[in-house]
Automatic annotation (TrEMBL):
GO terms for biological process: proteolysis. Belongs to the peptidase U62 family. Residues 122-211 form the Metalloprotease TldD/E central domain. Residues 30-87 form the Metalloprotease TldD/E N-terminal domain. This is TldD/PmbA family protein. Pfam families: PmbA_TldD_1st (PF01523), PmbA_TldD_2nd (PF19290), PmbA_TldD_3rd (PF19289). Residues 219-442 form the Metalloprotease TldD/E C-terminal domain. One of its GO terms (molecular function) is metallopeptidase activity. The lineage of its organism: Bacteria, candidate division KSB3. SUPFAM superfamilies: Putative modulator of DNA gyrase, PmbA/TldD. Gene3D superfamilies: PmbA/TldD superfamily (3.30.2290.10).
Length: 447
């Protein structure tokens, strides 16, 4: 991992080379190692290190960007010159903001664990061996990936901003397959030593065995019990579609005109908090502004949005420190979501259900209607029929088509335990399991 003093040295050179009125520098260093396995055998073991430097030059109301992965003086000077040349060719942007000045950042609780970065291919292979052995003993097939990695991200500018942070992450995704069923589980943590490989393997095996010989279930409205991974899909899509202040201001958010009103059940409280030690939080955003904890939904009421400097200025308020990179189209997103839990265990949820469906996780989920927060997707790797308060049988997978707002308005129970789950767009979040009534499954499958 690159040392902080080396990052500062690179940044100083770029700022010296740049002839722009204002200059912003973003450095990103990443390393990831991955062991992939299928059919009870490792078939891929790869490692990658990448580094990039982005220079943004501002001249008046014009801006230009150049990127390089070469850090010698000549390459840095050339990239700085390219950014300036691009800026000079642009038209004025009347909404372009000047770069921020020096900021102070809160200290985070140990976001970086060196042991995770030092975890060797042999150590990953040994964990996979234990998985394969457990599955092979029961005539099952294991597939998945075990990854370890981390990185350092820094942002600085010519007006005094300098923010730098390292992080680490380890993840195990495991699917155990029987002849006509499967079970899935995921474990993620910044500390690879906290991933309970034997425990996770047992869960996936149990689901695969229990869901054998699946039966058909008719589409329709059901009471559902969603494991945290399935809950995280709902929360991620809702947050992307709703809480970006830019979408709200442009009238593209399902929350437009509804801030301060009840949108979901009063047992739903959702926050974004980079400072929770259970998450790999970053203390700053892609503008170098300090992160703030934000309550998005409080007891069912849509309370706040997350802002960049630009959207904050339009709303006559300060940024919340959630700005996205300019290359993404701007705006802001909550990357450290926490959904408040309740007081009912999953076992109690099942026992209280006369007839329902138990869902491990969702797959291939997409947006149907963003203005109504309607999404569609498939159940996957462990879907069960609940009858008379007990898991009765594995069932073939179902497609759901549902409004997230409607679903979260019918939450009956929440578990007290929050599980760390990682999504496609917003990284990792902390969510409980939940029981929802009147959840719509629109069609069935043959598997």
């Amino acid at each position: 991992m690159i040392e902080k003093q080396n990052i500062q040295q690179i940044i100083r050179k770029v700022l010296d080379f740049s002839t722009a009125d204002e200059t912003e520098v973003i450095l990103d260093f990443q390393t990831e190692a991955l062991t992939r396995f299928a059919n009870n055998a490792i078939h891929q073991n790869v490692a990658e290190e990448s580094h990039s430097l982005q220079i943004r030059a501002i001249i008046g109301h014009k801006t230009g960007t150049a990127t390089t992965n070469l850090f010698d003086d000549e390459s840095l000077k050339r990239a700085a010159g390219t950014a300036v040349s691009i800026a000079q060719l642009q038209q004025d942007d009347p909404e372009l903001l000047p770069l921020p000045e020096h900021q102070n950042y809160a200290e985070l609780s140990e976001p970086y664990i060196q042991e995770t970065l030092d975890f060797s291919p042999m150590e990953r292979a040994e964990r996979v061996r234990r998985i394969v052995e457990a599955c092979d003993n029961q005539g099952l097939s294991a597939a998945g990936a075990f990854s370890t990695g981390g990185g350092t991200f820094a942002i600085a500018n010519s007006k005094g901003v300098f923010a730098c942070q390292s992080s680490s992450n380890a993840a195990l995704s495991l699917t155990v397959q029987a002849s006509d069923s499967s079970g899935w589980v995921e474990g993620v943590d910044k500390d690879v030593r906290e991933i309970d490989v034997p425990g996770l393997t047992d869960i996936a095996i149990e689901k695969a065995v229990a869901s054998q010989n699946p039966i058909d279930a008719e589409p329709g409205e059901y009471t559902v019990i969603l494991e945290p991974a399935a809950v995280s899909t709902l929360i991620e899509f809702m947050s992307v579609l709703g809480f970006n202040a830019q979408r709200y201001q442009e009238g593209r958010s399902f929350l437009t005109g509804k801030l301060g009103t009840q949108i979901v059940g009063n047992n739903i409280t959702l926050t974004d908090n980079a400072f929770d030690p259970r998450l790999n939080g970053f203390a700053f955003d892609f503008e170098g502004m300090p992160k703030q904890a934000v309550t998005l939904i409080e007891q069912g009421v849509a309370s706040h949005l997350v802002h960049s400097r630009k959207t904050g200025q339009k709303a006559d308020m300060q940024t919340t420190g959630h700005a996205l990179p300019l290359s993404s189209g701007g705006g802001a997103l909550p990357f450290h979501l926490i959904l408040q839990g309740g007081n009912s265990s999953i076992e109690e949820m099942i026992a209280s259900t006369d007839k329902g469906i138990y869902v491990t996780h969702f797959h291939y989920t997409n947006v149907v209607n963003p203005m109504e927060a309607i999404i569609t997707g498939m159940t996957r790797d462990g879907t069960f029929l609940i009858e008379n308060g007990k898991i009765a049988h594995g069932i073939k997978n179902l497609r759901f088509t549902e409004s997230i707002v409607k679903a979260l308005s019918h939450v009956e129970l929440l578990s007290p335990t929050q599980t760390k789950c990682c999504g496609r767009a917003l990284g990792c979040m902390l969510v409980p399991a939940m029981k929802i009534s009147n959840f719509t499954f629109s069609s069935g499958t043959k598997f």
